[in-house]
Design goal:
There is one protein chain. By secondary structure, the chain is of the alpha/beta class. The chain has eight helices and 14 strands. The strands form three sheets. A nine-stranded parallel β-sheet has the order 1-14-13-11-2-9-3-6-5, with helices on both faces. The chain is globular. The two termini are 27 Å apart.
Length: 246
């Protein structure tokens, strides 16, 4: 199987996102990269936010609004088409907003697109959710699950946030390696990466940090993962970017 790499700059087009979307991003490595990539590529009024927490040091030059009213946000959009919205910013962490806020901005047309980092992974490349995760807005039109390719072949305890939740789905122990087949099982399970997927919403998988220069072992693992996911779910392999995928 020949892996086709999707340039991060072509992601919105590859996902075939429509004129109005509420996108929730879950899983492991690559969520923040995906958030800002879509923020650059989508047209119209775009809100970028999180319903959990994210690093406050990374805003990619997008104007930051803290706990804005709807009127504040509307006024902001008269001068800028992008807004990064948090409820609070303290030190290196930013607190997210309520999913009901995201639903309202989208439903009322205040924003044409709302893109949400809806999950946390403590910088680990893969995860399965606990009972209270992820925090998905009910109006979500597209759910994107992220995994870092470097998680494959590594012990679950090392490569996965919520390692015990991964094992609950795939069996075995946390010392077992994360195989392409077990990763695919989590990505496809309603209690795994698809948890909270609203009825009628689209679902796609992004495999981050894939590169033409990967050694044969890692590239073979990625190929097996793509094969194990199957043809019913769109899968996009994203080339390595500078620094860790977040």
């Amino acid at each position: 199987m020949a892996i086709s790499l999707t340039p991060i700059g072509d992601l919105a087009s590859a996902l075939q996102l429509r004129d109005r979307e509420l996108v929730s991003i879950v899983g492991g490595g690559g969520k923040t990269t995906t958030l800002f990539a879509l923020g650059t590529q989508l047209s119209g009024r775009v809100v970028l936010t999180t319903t959990t927490k994210m690093g406050s040091e990374r805003d990619e030059g997008v104007p930051v609004l803290i706990a804005p009213s709807d009127d504040d946000l509307d006024r902001h959009f008269t001068n800028s088409s992008r807004a990064l919205v948090w409820s609070d910013r303290s030190g290196h962490r930013a607190d997210g907003v309520s999913p009901t806020d995201c639903d309202r901005w989208f439903r009322t047309g205040l924003a044409d697109h709302v893109v949400i980092e809806a999950d946390g992974s403590r910088r680990k490349p893969f995860k399965a959710p606990y009972d209270y995760e992820p925090v998905i807005a009910s109006q979500t039109t597209t759910l994107i699950a992220c995994i870092g390719a470097h998680a494959l072949g590594q012990p679950i305890i090392d490569s996965c946030h919520r390692a015990d939740a991964v094992v609950d789905i795939v069996g075995g122990t946390t010392e077992d390696p994360l195989t392409p087949e077990s990763a695919a099982q989590v990505l496809l399970d309603p209690a795994g990466s698809r948890k909270g997927l609203p009825q009628g919403a689209g679902y796609a998988v992004l495999i981050h940090r894939v590169d033409r220069d990967d050694d044969r072992v890692e590239r073979g693992l990625v190929e097996r993962l793509v094969s194990a996911i199957g043809s019913d779910v769109p899968v996009f392999c994203i080339a390595t970017v500078a620094g860790p995928a977040r």
